[in-house]
Every structure is written in C-alpha cells, then in structure tokens.
Amino acid sequence: MLFPHPSLGKSAAGAACDANWGHAMKWVVCGLVAVAMIAGAPATAGDVEFRPVDTKKLVVQPSKAAANLAAGTINLVGQQAAGSLENNGYIKTINNLFSFKRIEAKFQSGPSALPSPNMYQSTKYKNYNTPVMPIYPR
C-alpha cells in the first residue's frame, strides 16, 4: 500500500486519529492533481507563423545504396515467406483439394491469325540441301 492507514494493527485508541488521516490524505490527493494539471498544461508559443508542410518531400532522402538494400531485404523476406507457405503440407493439401489442373492444348484450335507461309515466294524455292540416304557397305 502506498499510504498505509495508521490505525492498522493498533488498539481502539489508535482509531482516534482517523479524522486527521482523512484530512491529510485529501491534501495529498489534491496536491497530486495540481501537479498533474500543471505538468499537462500546454506550453504557450511566442510568434506562430503558418508554414505548410510539403508531404511529397521526404524528411531524409535515402541514398541509392540504402534504397537498394531495403528493396533487397523486402524481396528476400517475401521470398522466404512464400517459400515457407509453398512447402507447408497443410497448404499443399488445401490447394490440391480446391484447385484443378489446367491442361494446355498441344494443338491450336481454329485457324491461325498469322498468314499462311505458302503465300510468300521465298517458301517455294527449291531446297538444295536435301539429305541423301546413306549407303552401307555389305
């Protein structure tokens, strides 16, 4: 207890000082309230001049090295978090249950948006680089 009551552990004669104790306690509380009010009062300023704050300009301009270090750190932490989530067995199970495998077509469906190669004269030239079937001696 911060302020133990003086009549604690005393006889009935010690209870007579209860009136004085209550009076002193009241002044202690009033003094603490006054100190708190004085400490919490705002300080008065001299001349107040309005200057708008430029919110687009940083207070401290980071150097290129510091910016690169911060970007690298953020990337590293993100990759570590993503890696730990990908390797989590529970998440793999949930992904397998609620996802489906996309099958990519091996052949294009429908006509190509590109023009046909047969439209160009260069594709009709005779190819002189035709391989010859090898002859094996018997």
Name the features:
138 residues, mainly alpha, 3 helices, 41% helix, 0% strand
Largest sheet: none
Broad structural category: mainly alpha
Distance between the termini: 115 Å
Helix content: 40-55%
Number of strands: 0
The low-confidence runs, each spanning 5 or more residues with pLDDT under 50, are none
Number of discrete helical segments: 3
Q: Compute the CA-based radius of gyration.
A: 44 Å
Order of helices and strands: HHH
Shape category: elongated
What integer is the average pLDDT? 77
Tell me the β content. Answer: under 5%
Structure description:
Helix content is 41%, strand content 0%. The protein is an all-alpha fold. The protein is elongated. The N and C termini lie far apart (115 Å). 0% of the residues are buried. The mean pLDDT is 77.
How would you summarize the topology of this molecule?
Blueprint: H1 18-40, H2 64-86, H3 89-98
Quick description:
The chain contains three helices and no strands. The chain is mainly α. The longest helix is centred in the first third of the chain and has 23 residues, at 18-40.
